[in-house]
């Protein structure tokens, strides 16, 4: 029997809904982006994001149902991002999910946003086996996670300050490249010299463990532009390539070390920064050199979407986990640093 889960995602600046069958097949996947809303400000404005979610959430849910050719009565559960994220956005998605669960009687479950990113790869034809190592790289998070099973996660390391995605977006803002700027840096870097400018690679020594830090890199870019100005043409491409290379080198070096340390031969990369072409190429090259297999979802599944939330929610629901209508938002909730077994209370 097919098990269908409706997923809702509204933790930042995308309002998304999707329906996933059996945790592995997305039959609909709808995302309403807010890039135009926030572009003039150079970053996400939380209050504007919340208002846009309110306007978009019902049409997006209806579009997901229409795309799948299903009614609410044909669903088996509802999964919603309840942590972490912008509190206003989380509340819009959660209240919608609660209302749907209440009027239909469908079981409800809350999903940690990062567990959603980890589940995007299971929607691909060749997902990694369990256990495996995962690098999560997004606007607000950079983490190395050992995935022992669906819902059994151990965070091995996380960013201590700016995440990789923040370094890209803030760097792009310094260079006047607009928002979201990570994709612009990636595009310019393709024609630039990654050795043109020397940038620091933070916390890469063994003694620093598996944690990350990118705030010093952002400061180094600011110092460089204050001294030399913001270049144009080929010199701008060189600067972007060098800046991107510094981020990618740290991500790849730390992932390789963790794979060796824990003896894991399968590595997934997920989150918005996993769409970066430089990171995708460098990680695959590292896998070939170190003999570990790399799994990266297509770019559309790296950025925030609801199919990944429905996929993660599927495994919680089939284990019998349920959230009540008192499910609350946890805007700063981390992933577990200690083992959490499937079925454990959330």
By DSSP, the count of extended strands is 10
Uncertain residue segments: none
Kindly give the count of domains.
Answer: 2
Shape: globular
Overall mean pLDDT stands at 94
What is the rounded Rg?
20 Å
Elements, N to C (H/E): EEEHHEHEHEEEHHHHEHEHH
Number of DSSP helical runs:
11
The third-level CATH topology of the largest domain is Nucleotidyltransferase, domain 5
Q: Which strand order do you get reading across the main beta sheet?
A: 3-2-1-4-5
DSSP strand (E) fraction? 15-25%
Provide tags for this entry.
346 residues; alpha/beta; Nucleotidyltransferase, domain 5; 2 domains; five-stranded mixed beta sheet; 10 strands; 42% helix; 18% strand
């Amino acid at each position: 029997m097919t098990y269908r889960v409706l997923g809702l995602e509204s933790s930042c600046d995308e309002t998304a809904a999707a329906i996933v069958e059996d945790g592995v097949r997305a039959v609909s996947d709808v995302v309403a982006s807010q890039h135009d809303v926030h572009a003039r400000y150079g970053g996400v404005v939380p209050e504007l994001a919340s208002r846009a979610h309110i306007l978009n959430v019902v049409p997006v849910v209806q579009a997901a149902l229409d795309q799948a050719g299903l009614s609410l009565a044909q669903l088996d559960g509802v999964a919603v991002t309840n942590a972490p994220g912008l509190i206003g956005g989380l509340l819009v998605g959660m209240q919608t999910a609660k209302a749907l669960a209440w009027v239909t009687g469908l079981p409800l479950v809350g999903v940690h946003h990062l567990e959603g990113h980890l589940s995007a790869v299971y929607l691909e034809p060749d997902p990694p086996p369990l256990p495996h190592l995962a690098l999560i790289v997004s606007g607000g998070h950079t983490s190395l996670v050992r995935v022992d099973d669906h819902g059994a996660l151990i965070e091995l390391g996380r960013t201590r300050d700016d995440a990789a995605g923040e370094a890209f977006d803030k760097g792009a803002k310094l260079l006047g490249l607009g928002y979201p700027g990570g994709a612009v840096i990636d595009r310019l870097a393709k024609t630039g010299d990654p050795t043109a400018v020397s940038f620091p690679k933070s916390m890469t020594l063994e003694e620093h463990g598996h944690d990350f830090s990118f705030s010093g890199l952002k400061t180094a870019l600011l110092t460089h532009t204050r001294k030399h100005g913001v270049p144009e043409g080929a010199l701008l491409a060189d600067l972007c390539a060098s800046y991107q290379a510094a981020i990618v080198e740290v991500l790849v070096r730390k992932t390789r070390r963790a794979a060796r340390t824990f003896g894991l031969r399968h590595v997934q990369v997920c989150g918005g920064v996993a769409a970066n072409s430089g990171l995708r190429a460098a990680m695959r090259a590292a896998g070939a050199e170190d003999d570990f297999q790399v799994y990266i979802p297509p770019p559309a599944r790296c950025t925030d979407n609801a199919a990944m939330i429905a996929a993660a929610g599927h495994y919680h629901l089939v284990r019998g986990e349920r959230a009540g209508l008192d499910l609350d938002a946890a805007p700063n909730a981390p992933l577990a640093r200690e083992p959490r077994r499937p079925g454990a209370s959330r």
